[in-house]
């Protein structure tokens, strides 16, 4: 009995001594009395604050068990990584499109079940999201996207594209691929946050990979072109494509683009097809957004079951 008591005592002493070892301080601020997410409905903000703010803002609430060594090392690491990826503390300094993009990024992590971390919700059960919470976020982002009247924007047929020789390469050296208009449309989607509809085209290599079921990983030579158009709503409520927004390319070459997850990333925006990004490292944004789909070779697109295209 004495031996067991000594062992327990030693363990307690070691635990107490361990508390003297602390991780590098992660500063936290008290949330302002005014609401943090200005312009966002209270019920939507509450969901985000409860499930996201501890790791994705400066307003972290440390529970007593979060402060215990060695747990505090793991918590501090998660907070640093979380703030780096998404920081709601910056909300007031962002323009509306950037705010919407931040919310979309958060929803993307939730829908892919990457966030909130299961290890976090295991000890913070209040942060768990139920289907009602997720539907609330989706509904808000969908209804928050404002479309202009149909006659206020040019449609695709009204836009005269610049001459190919005038289209500059992406900062990482990737050239614009005008032939994508002749590729097969393999899927479509929409962005809840900014009111756009998107058509994804696949080059012949991508189409063959879909036909044979060889899509994870996608073979070298696969190229996707994702075009985005502003949603327009007719009087009868039907939706159609309005003003051209951008075209994005994903080019698969596992060796050439090994440093960017096996894909070359590029984007051209607006009617003048201006390349996106100020530096070569702009594509880290693309990788960050697609990271939830790393188990699907970083591709969000689920090919449509088109007759003669998918494998029987």
Write a concise synopsis of the structure shown:
This protein is of the alpha+beta class and 312 residues long.
What does this structure look like?
By secondary structure, this protein is α+β, with helices and mostly antiparallel strands. The protein folds into two domains: 12-144, no CATH class; 150-296, 3-Layer(bba) Sandwich (Chalcone isomerase), CATH 3.50.70. Helices cover 32% and strands 16% of the residues. The chain has helices spanning 2-18, 42-56, 71-85, 96-111, 118-123, 131-144, 204-212, 283-290; strands spanning 184-191, 196-202, 223-233, 239-252, 263-269, 274-275. The chain has a six-stranded antiparallel β-sheet with strand order 1-2-3-4-5-6. A hairpin with a 4-residue loop joins strand 5 (263-269) and strand 6. The chain starts with a helix and ends in a 22-residue tail after the last helix. The model is unreliable at 145-160 and 306-312 (pLDDT under 50).
Question: What is the CATH domain class of the largest domain?
Answer: Alpha Beta
Assign the CATH superfamily of the largest domain: Cytochrome P460
The parts where pLDDT drops under 50 for at least 5 residues are: 145-160, 306-312
Question: For the residues shown, what is the average pLDDT?
Answer: 77
Helix/strand-derived class? Answer: alpha+beta
What does the largest sheet look like? 6 strands, antiparallel
The number of helical elements comes to: 8
Q: Share of helix among residues?
A: 25-40%
Enumerate the strands of the largest sheet in spatial order, edge to edge or round the barrel.
Answer: 1-2-3-4-5-6
Radius of gyration: 24 Å
CATH architecture of the largest domain: 3-Layer(bba) Sandwich
How do the helices and strands follow one another from N- to C-terminus?
HHHHHHEEHEEEEH
DSSP strand tally: 6
